[in-house]
Amino acid sequence: MVEAVRSGRSAREVAREFRVSHATVRMWVERASRQRLDRVQWENRPSGAREAWNRTPRELEATVLRVRQELRETSALGEYGAAAIAAVLRERGEGNRPALRTLGRILARHGAVERTMRQRWPAPPRGWYLTDVGARLAELESFDVVEDLKIKDGPLLHVLTGASLHGHLVSAWPEPRINAKCITAKLLEHWQEHGLPAYAQFDNDTRFQGAHHCRDTFGRVTRLCLALGVVPVFVPPRETGFQAAIENFNGQWQSKVWQRFCFESVRAVRRQSARYIEAHRQRTAARRESGPERRRWPSGFEFDVQAPLRGQIVYLRRSNGVGAVELLGRAFAVSREWLGRLVRCEVDLDQSCVRFYGLRRRDPDAHVLLREATYKPRPRRFAGE
């Protein structure tokens, strides 16, 4: 285009020939000015100076990179970042010393910044601390109590909740008072309708576990589980995560039922809760069909709270500073090489022993047998009715 204009043709004629605007032809003619065409800088470039006026001199950047390499190879502290480089430049009396942020930009511009990425480990499978539950071969059902919900101008309300891990079978029983007898009655009714899971998980509330002030105490709920062949599991005290499934459902129930309406009585709460539970079960029916099977209710079963104890109980505990764990009012030495770590304690009442397995979230399939100790609880009659 420039050559055509210089030959004497008009800019508009050249624009029509090359199918560009008249302004485009004028721009390139002005860019070429009176230079030879082979010497014209045709590349687009921003307006203004070719280089920023406040750019760090290239010689100083080379000095910074050289000091970093020296520190990386010889520093006793192993520090070669911006702060260490600034200290060396100050000691050498460099007149034009860059600021710390400028040093950081120089290092980043030349790719001399080593960023330590956070190591993220994959989450273990659900119920990983129990081998068959983690492999989806057995069902675990968690139970909890939501306490002190106040009905306006009415009594306090407590809610016993339950949620299965794989089948997501949920339940909620609002009651003015929840004690061990109430929990036992609700579990009997629930399991008779839906079948028995392999494990029932609880926190360390005395209503579930039994009294804490005496040795070898097995509460009413524990005895019910043992009588039905359900293994009770008690999670570590003051640790979150193990009850995540039931805690999540507790939040859902409160947001979808309790906080949506203004209830006048316990009966109204029960009605709305029953509607929600029924709708929730219908929506999650497919998950239960694909989940582990539940055992049928034993025919002719009658709960005898004084019956001899048979079966297993699982306690998840954290070992202390000397490698011991506390359960059932006793301290068991486990391993001095397993300090402050998670331990699965399997109380086998049939074999009169306790087996301790070391657990690691990073390796959920490795359940290391740390020790097996003899344990025989003192025969004691249950004090309740």
Task: Explain the overall architecture.
This protein is of the alpha/beta class and 385 residues long. Helix content is 34%, strand content 18%. Among the domains are: 38 residues, no CATH class; 52 residues. It contains 13 helices and 11 strands. It has a 9-stranded mixed beta sheet.
Short description:
The chain has helices at residues 2-6, 11-18, 22-32, 58-74, 82-91, 100-109, 131-134, 180-194, 206-209, 220-228, 244-258, 266-283, 285-290; strands at 140-150, 156-164, 170-175, 199-202, 231-234, 312-318, 324-327, 330-333, 342-348, 353-358, 368-374. It has 385 residues and is α/β, with parallel strands linked by helices.
Question: Given the C-alpha coordinates, what overall shape results?
Answer: elongated
Rounded average pLDDT: 91
Strand order of the largest sheet: 3-2-1-4-5-6-9-10-11
Name the structural class. Answer: alpha/beta
